[in-house]
Amino acid sequence: MSIAKQLDTLFPRAEDIPERYRLGEPQEQREYLLNGQMKTWQGPLATVYSPVYLSSEQGEQQVILGSTPLMDADAALAALDAAVQAYDHGQGVWPNLRVSERIGHVETFLARMREQREAVVRLLMWEIGKNLKDAEKEFDRTCDYIVDTIESLKQLDRQSSRFEMVQGTIGQIRRVPLGVALCMGPYNYPLNETFTTLIPALIMGNTVVFKPAKFGVLLIRPLLEAFRSSFPPGVINVIYGRGRDTVSALMATGKIDVFAFIGTHKGASDLKRLHPRPHRLRAALGLDAKNPGIVLPKVDLDNAVEEAVTGALSFNGQRCTALKILFVHEDVLEPFLTKFSAKLAALKPGMPWEEGVALTPLPESGKVAYLTQLLDDALNKGAKIINEGGGEHRQSFFYPALLSPVSTDMRLYHEEQFGPLVPVVPFKDVKEVIDYVQQSDYGQQLSIFGNDSAEVGRLVDAFVNQVGRININAQCQRGPDSYPFNGRKNSAEGTLSVDDALRVFSIRTLVASRSTPQSKALLNDIILNRESVFISTDYIL
To answer: Is the CB of residue 446 less than 8 Å from the CB of residue 293?
Structure first.
């Protein structure tokens, strides 16, 4: 059956959806979390659409999932005031809890979060089109990340539970919070990527204003009560609405101390510019990427194709770590394209809950039109669609297109498509690829596929000062979460990993004294009488 015919029957009838994955009536969400209380928003609402359409006698109708608060600047500022008050210049309850006590609160939240697994997974499928397997993986990986963060903080605190003696000065160094954090995540990983900044910010003693991603908003709703009941009032406040109405107002106050954002470099720059005290703002940013995959002439072609297909098309290519452009040596170009097309043809299109489905509808309104523009531009300038059915689309679904030869005059050569378009650039001299990486505005990751040790080694040395991670015979990826995740140029600011995130949301502070008998006696009394949270030799097991 042709791709066009498959797409004619892609969207199901309501009665064909398995009972356990149905959502029922649209959810009107008016509640939001402010200062430890579930508040009811009385203002306008934003409609939440699913990328899924349903077939009926009237044609294909887009599913409306519900609505969320379309909050304004005043409501956002109230959330900020609650976070500022809860931090209270570092004198609030939360920043002054012992590390073990903050860990206890996070563990309570994790237990309550696990209870909402089924609801969150279902909404991941319906809101952003993530297939069942990947939605479950995102939830479980997020829980694992929280566990790993707790263990990492324990280890960090153990190292800080002793005094150091240097040149007659005795001191204790601990990490303390920075203040109020604004955390914003991306729609492609609205749970996992968001929580990789939100949880470290909280556990290190900061208070937080959290704004969910533009898609994947309703899936936070099942977690609101878990947040409310697990943390003291004002520690975590959840706002909704348009960023230009809410986040802009927050940044303009100058009261945000840490800005955690995953999105475009332009969006991050625009928001940072609003902060009146930029030298006081710490930023942890995950931004744009145009990660290249480089296929050398001496290569295990089967492995290169396997990794490239997954790297380029996992979650329809909607990952910052996706392979966004492939440079393939002309000696292996034809077999590479043939094998890639065959692998692509084996990917199953369908609805997120269907078993074995790999290609699903896209959540962004206008995304299909944008991808079509990129495709048409490439075709008009000499590229060809290699795979059967490439570029066919229906409503929110776009079937992947493998394109070659792609050249420098095409938009797809430069723009981050963030979707299922796979541009292939043939090359003869590897210097062409080196020049591309060096001149690129982005520097997150790249992948090298080859088995000539001299050539691979030379390319590693050419690229280590250009990107944050080089993958050899493997696709670009974030994990394992213990590894640093960063980027150069316009791709990132700061480094995230389980360990690094704890440092991003805190600062080292030293208490020191002359090493005299009187000072030692005083410090001993403080420790024995537990008269300070900071000065302590508690050892967390």
So the answer is: yes
Residues contacting 174, CB < 8 A, separation 6+? 157, 160, 508, 509, 534
> What ranges in 356-452 are assigned the alpha helix state H?
367-380, 411-414, 431-439
Query: For 397-413, what is the HEC assignment?
Result: EECCEEEECCCCCCHHH
pLDDT of amino acid 24? 86
Q: Whole-model pTM?
A: 0.95
Exposure string of 56-83, with b = 16+ CB inside 10 Å and e = fewer, is eeeeeebbebbbbbbbbbebbbebbbbb
Both tokens assigned to 145: 């990340």
Judging by beta carbons within 10 Å of its beta carbon (0-12, 13-18, 19+), is residue 46 exposed, middle or buried?
A: middle
At 480, which amino acid appears?
A: P
Task: Say how far apart CA 31 and CA 97 lie, in whole Å.
Answer: 29
For residue 120 the two structure tokens come to 């969150």
Mean pLDDT, range 101-129, rounded to an integer = 98
pLDDT in tens, 230-269: 999 999 999 999 999 999 999 999 999 999 999 999 999 9
Give the integer Cα–Cα distance in Å for 489 and 507: 25
Inter-CA distances, 218 with 27, 281, 391, 538, Å: 8, 30, 30, 41
The pLDDT, as a whole number, for residue 533 is: 93
Helix (H) or strand (E) holding 292: strand 291-295
Between the alpha carbon of residue 74 and those of residues 78, 240, 242, the distances in Å are: 6, 12, 13
Residue 128 to residues 8, 59, 135, 252, 447, Cα–Cα distance (Å) = 21, 22, 10, 31, 27
Per-residue pLDDT of 276-296, as tens digits, reads 998 999 999 999 999 999 999
Report how far residue 427's alpha carbon sits from residue 98's, in angstroms, rounded to the nearest whole number: 58
